[in-house]
Amino acid sequence: MNKNKVDGTLKQIKGSVKEALGKVTGNTSLEVEGVAEKTAGKVQEGVGKTQEKAKDIADKATGKD
């Protein structure tokens, strides 16, 4: 697990909370902000996963299994 994966997951959670609060309170701005934050979190988590895959490939190529 790396920092991007962790931070991305946290952003997704925070975004989900904002989105839900926005829906409950009728605050469209907060809801949209939550959706955007969730999306950014998914992207960041994807970057983290890609970094891990690249490291695994590099480790195998150099014999660092």
Automatic annotation (TrEMBL):
Residue ranges with Basic and acidic residues bias: 50-65
Residues in CsbD-like domain copies? 4-56
Output the InterPro entries linked to this UniProt entry: CsbD, UPF0337_stress_rsp, YjbJ_sf
Where do the segments described as Disordered lie?
A: 39-65
**Gene3D superfamilies associated with the record:** YjbJ
Q: Where are the transmembrane segments?
A: none
Annotated family: Belongs to the UPF0337 (CsbD) family.
**Protein name per UniProt:** CsbD-like domain-containing protein
